[in-house]
Every structure is written in structure tokens, then in C-alpha cells.
Amino acid sequence: DHYHIAESSSKTIDIMDWLSDNQGDPALVDFNDKLKDHLLARLGGLAFDGEEHAFTDADRDSLIIRKNRIYLHSFLRVNYTTYDLRREQDSISSRTHPDLMVLSHEDGSDGIVPHPYWYGRVIHIFHVDVLHFKPGTELNPPDIQRINVLFVRWFGRETSIPTGFAAKQLHRVGFLDSTDPSAFGFLDPDQVVRGIHLIPAFTHGRTGELLPPSIARPAGEIDDWKLYYVNM
To answer: HSE of 66 in the Cβ direction (CA atoms, 13 Å)?
Structure first.
């Protein structure tokens, strides 16, 4: 398997209670609808392209999250092949090693030279148990399906200066502003290429302007580094 998440979890969150306790948090805006959109896209076999597919309220009503709970996990272990064709494994954790990369879907149509990867920071690793009532199956209750999910805060690439091997400059990324619709999202763990090591760009300092106090940060943190270097 490409990745591994534990089969069971003793840490659970009631989604509605959690959202009520954290009203006003930008990371949780439309959380329930966006989660269901993500799950429906996965169940429908829709390809990941970096954008969440939008579904109707009727579509969302056809998907039941059992007990209205998410089951938290401490680690995601990702198997990958190194440059010298060795098999290795990264252990990703929202507390100790939260940063990851996925294949990008950039085509240069925005005038920016495409980059092969997108980068994100894991807020939570969890699974949900769902029942999907497809049209015409109302009299035959569906089987419960487990779906593993990553809740991610996305980075954007800083493109004001040339970067990469030719420029002899590490690529730089920074968190998207919390008002950007793409700042937070859900990810299939199978899309993760591997974990990454980001180095804070200390000379650029920190800022609290990208995100007010939020569950998206570790407890006690109130701001973010403005930029990070991607360690290649």
C-alpha cells in the first residue's frame, strides 16, 4: 500500500459541537459542506485536480456521516521511492512533521511557469464512516464505508524571484491568506507524494495577518512565518 493509517482511533470529534465551539474560525467556514463535497467526489471517482467539486444540497443529503463524528489519528505513514530507487517511508503528524507535497496540476495558463508540486500542512488526520444513499437504493441500506481524509492548510508559491536549481535558489512558499477560498481543504492521503522539510525564512519575519487565532495552528501559536524555503 502507498500509505498506512491506523485501523482504530479512540479520539473522536462531534462535528457539530466542534463547529459550534469554534464559530468564526476561517479554517472551518462551510466545513461540513466542503467535507461532504470531498467525500462525494471520492465516492464518485472524480479525479483530483486541486479544486474541490461542488455538489447540491440534495447530493449532500444523500451522504450520511455515521454518528456525525470524525475519528482522529496521530500519524500518516507514506511509502515512497527515493531518487536512487530505494523504498522509504515518511511519518506525517500534525504535531511533529505536518508538511507534505502532492503532484500539482499547473499548466502555465496563468502565465506562471508550472511547478511540479503543491505543498500543504496537515491540520488533522482522520477517518469518517459514511453511508451513501444513491438514487433508487432507498429500500436497500448501503454498506458503511470508511474514508481516510487529511484536513490541510495550503501554501502558495512565492514567484517574485527566480528559484530552483538553475537559479541556485530554494523555492519559497507561504500560507495562502485565510480569505482565499483555496486556503483550506481536504485531501485523499493516497495523493500524498511524501513529507517535506520546510525551513522558515527568518529574515522575512512572522505575521498574524494571514489568519486570525485558529484551530489550524498548534495550540499557543498566534501567527505564522511569512515565507518558508522548500528543502530540496
So the answer is: 13
Dihedral sign for Cα 118, 123, 126, 130, please.
negative
C-alpha 53, offset from chain centre = 15
Q: Rounded to whole angstroms, how far apart are CA atoms 196 and 216?
A: 18
Dihedral of the CA atoms 31, 35, 38, 43 (nearest 10)?
A: -160
Q: Which residue in 229, 230, 193, 186 sits closest to 104, CA to CA?
A: 193
C-beta atoms surrounding 93 within 10 Å: 15
SS3 string of 146-159? EEEEEEEEEEEEEC
Can you give the pTM of this predicted structure?
Answer: 0.92
Q: In whole angstroms, give the CA distance from residue 105 to residue 46.
A: 15
- The amino acid that residue 103 corresponds to is L
Which of 79-93, 128-142, 157-171 shows the highest mean pLDDT? 79-93
